Amino acid sequence: MKILSMLLFISLLNLSCDPVHENTQSIDDDLHEKIKSEEPITFDQDILPIFVQRCISCHDDFDSYLDASSYSDVKSKIRKILKTVVETKTMPSDAQNMPQIERDLVEKWINDGALKSLTAPHPLIK
Ligand code: HEC
């Protein structure tokens, strides 16, 4: 656990110092790398930052339908999220242009079992 938090800290440090990351194009490149890699996609690491940016302006904890920053809430609406974000692309509903790579990441995350994090038990294990 200590090592994990260290790694997280170092990567956050890297992000904040790395001027390249101010360019959204390179974030997209990182997402392409992530999708190609064998590394599992997780809510905490990969999906939450996207949902914070793209969804919580409308779906926060004041929204009676969905709090997009809550894993359990997102899990309970996962079919509808797959449908609206990946299939019909009707969400996000505002004018913002959610890049296809982010939709692909959401799709792969769901298909891979919608893990919360690398340390949490697999959601199918009760
Ligand atoms: C600009 C505001 C806004 C943003 C941003 C937004 N939504 Fe929504 N969303 C709505 C509204 C309003 C509704 C309810 C009305 C409707 O179904 O269109 C809704 C409904 C939904 C539904 C239910 C659809 C259904 O068929 O019942 C889902 C799932 C959803 N949003 C997911 C998301 C996700 C995931 C994101 C981010 C990727 C997102 N939304 C971003 C406003 C927004």
The gist of it:
With 126 residues, this protein is mainly α.
Walk me through what this model shows.
The protein is mainly α. The protein has a domain at 24-111. The protein has helices at residues 2-17, 24-36, 43-54, 71-76, 78-87, 100-111. Helix 2 (24-36) runs parallel beside helix 6, helix 3 crosses helix 6 and helix 5 runs antiparallel to helix 6. The radius of gyration is 15 Å and the shape is globular. Mean pLDDT is 85; it is low at 17-21. Heme C is lined by residues 51, 54-55, 57-59, 66, 68, 77, 80-81, 84-85, 91-94. The site of heme C (HEC) has 17 residues, from helix 3 and helix 5.
Fold blueprint:
Blueprint: H1 2-17, H2 24-36, H3 43-54, H4 71-76, H5 78-87, H6 100-111
The structure holds heme C (HEC).
Residues 51, 54-55, 57-59, 66, 68, 77, 80-81, 84-85, 91-94 line the site of heme C (HEC).
Key traits:
binds heme C; 126 residues; mainly alpha; 55% helix
Number of separate strands? 0
- Mind describing the biggest β-sheet? none
Helix content: 40-55%
CA-based shape = globular
Bound compounds: heme C
Helix and strand sequence: HHHHHH
Put simply, the count of helices is: 6
Q: Could you say which structural class the secondary elements and strand pairing correspond to?
A: mainly alpha
Report the uncertain regions. Answer: 17-21
Q: Gyration radius, to the nearest Å?
A: 15 Å
Strand content: under 5%
Averaged pLDDT, please? 85
Query: How many angstroms separate the termini?
Result: 22 Å
